[in-house]
Amino acid sequence: MGRSCHIRGGRSPRPWRSSFSDMKRKMKPMAWLRQRRWIRYPLRMTIDEQDRITRNHADAMYHVGDVAVFEIHLGQGTTDAQLCLSLDGHKVLLHQPLSERHVTIRQQLDAPGVLRCRVNGMRHNKPFSMLCAAAFDPEQITPTTTTPEDFHEFWAAQKTALAAVPAAPRLEPDPEAPTSHPDCSLQRIRLDHIDNSAVYGYVAQPTDSSGPLPAVLVLQNHGGGAWSVPREWVTDLAALGFLAMAINTHDVDNGLPAAEYERLNKGPLASYTLRGFMDRDEYYFRAPYLRVLRALDYLVDHPRWDGKSLILTGRSQGGGLSLVGAGLDPRVTGVVCAVPAMCEHGGPRFGRPAGWPRFVPTDEHDYGGDPNAPTVDGHGPLSDVVWQVSRYYDAVNFARRIHCPAVICLGLLDTCVPAMTALSAYNVLAGQRAVVISPDRGHDADRDPHYRRNERICAIATTAGSSLRT
């Protein structure tokens, strides 16, 4: 399995190719869209010199009806090995012990999806696990979630409630500003928010000019709960010529002592992803979703915004929030996100995986056991009430409303945000789009050097007519 870049081609024609060619002609300056939009960058899948899984297609791409062949090699120190083939970590297709050190497994999928091959066992008396995956017609994976009839009305009411609260921005210099970009200014910001809460973040901009700037908003990943947004998230983008803002997901200030974040995560914010999930008006993520809109309002009203580029970016939770923000606010001109969470909340109801935060904990760790058995994180089975609420907060239903250019990066080995959930969101995007699939990476797919987040953000901005630093 090589490290070269493989672009989809040489197989059966795709109905989307002609429309994509038309899009490329319209978006000529966007170099990242000049190639096929299905981009895969295989890495060598070797756990160590002895234990490994390989597959017969290096790029991990298959058609429905193809046979994926997994070669499993176990070293001398490996014992008690168990094989599990599953539909992207959810529906178990095969589970068996491995009694041989070299085993060949052949498997097909009868519908588009991701086939995950997992081997658990003991290596030198210590637990280990290794993964490999195959994607079957990923561009044809469709969501299980559906949009509630009053989805638009519900979120329009939330926007009205937000607009009734003046933002009252308060900015102050940050005494701990990094020195890596001396030609950029950094400020702490606080905005008033719904329910007597606030939006806390950082804002940075270049100081070597006074002209208009494209804007970018960076959204925070879960990272274990509450933690401080890194200042470099905005200063690095400001150095490229952006008016950059990053916000905390929660009603929590940045730059606090580590002990304070630990207290919050063990107390008020413990299991926040489940707070109020029996009622759409009380679910915890209502406030974080609206925080994105509050921050976008601030950027749009900023005197240095150029009125051309308003871009969202983030990974994991921040990737899901990027899709939500773009779906709620048509002023957004671009999205560049990785491993987006909060997609397909109700997937297990239909035999499919759910993305983080997993309202339903049924995954391959059950190995075909009780589908409602609790897992180590204590989440319970999905009731019909919770499923109905989840549809108002599923990032897929926001992705359906995105018409601006979007780039999504994902990993086929992601056990936190299964690839099928991210692809369900990608495949309903209505605008120009590109996906970077890392066949042999998991939740760290954003570290793939081919993702090139900042380059893609800059490309979207320049295509919209914004000027950046040269």
Structure description:
By secondary structure, this protein is α/β, with parallel strands linked by helices. It is 21% helix and 26% strand. The chain has a domain at 151-463: Rossmann fold. It is built from 10 helices and 19 strands. Strands 1-2-19-18-17-16-14-15-13-12-11 form an 11-stranded mixed beta sheet, sandwiched between helices. The protein has a 5-stranded mixed beta sheet with strand order 4-10-9-6-7, with no helix packed on it. It has a 3-stranded antiparallel beta sheet with strand order 3-5-8, with no helix packed on it. Helix 5 crosses helix 6 (317-328). The radius of gyration is 23 Å and the shape is globular. Mean pLDDT is 86; it is low at 1-36, 43-48 and 360-380.
Give the SSE map.
Elements: E1 6-7, H1 17-26, E2 38-40, E3 52-55, E4 61-62, E5 68-73, E6 78-87, E7 91-97, E8 102-107, E9 113-123, E10 126-136, H2 151-163, E11 170-173, E12 184-192, E13 198-206, E14 213-219, H3 232-238, E15 243-247, H4 258-266, H5 286-301, E16 305-315, H6 317-328, E17 334-338, H7 384-391, H8 395-399, E18 406-411, H9 419-426, E19 433-438, H10 453-463
Parallel strand pairs: 2-19, 4-10, 14-15, 14-16, 16-17, 17-18, 18-19
Antiparallel strand pairs: 1-2, 3-5, 5-8, 6-7, 6-9, 9-10, 11-12, 12-13, 13-15
Helix pairs in contact: 5-6
